[in-house]
Structure formats: C-alpha cells, structure tokens
Amino acid sequence: MALTREQEKERNTVAYVHRQTRDALLAETDWWAVADRTMTQAEIDYRQALRDITTHELWPDLNPDSWPTKP
Hints:
single chain; 2 helices; about 50% helix
C-alpha cells in the first residue's frame, strides 16, 4: 500500500530525528577513536551498529530496543 503524502512526510521527519540521535551518539564516542587509544571490539561493534541503524528492518519506525547498547 502506498503512503499518503502526509505519511511520507511523517516518515521523513522520524528518519531525520533518528539520524540526529545516531549522530549525537556517535559524537559521544568519537574520543574512543583517538590515535593514542585502541578501541575494544565492543566499542567498534557499537559504533558500526550506529552507522548501520538506517538499514535496520524497522527503519525508520524504531523502538527503544532497536538501538544498539553502549558498551
């Protein structure tokens, strides 16, 4: 079933907000990747999961459990 124009606008807004959240979560962990520090595998996996959130099967209709857990 095709989305109405209003539904499409709402989905785009939700996706935008989720991308902003993802970007903020990545920014919080940028210090993990400084040159004089080695990230743990859990930290690498978390940051990759954040980058991949737009490919989540529920995107953009995520729920709190859809987000990766910070190590």
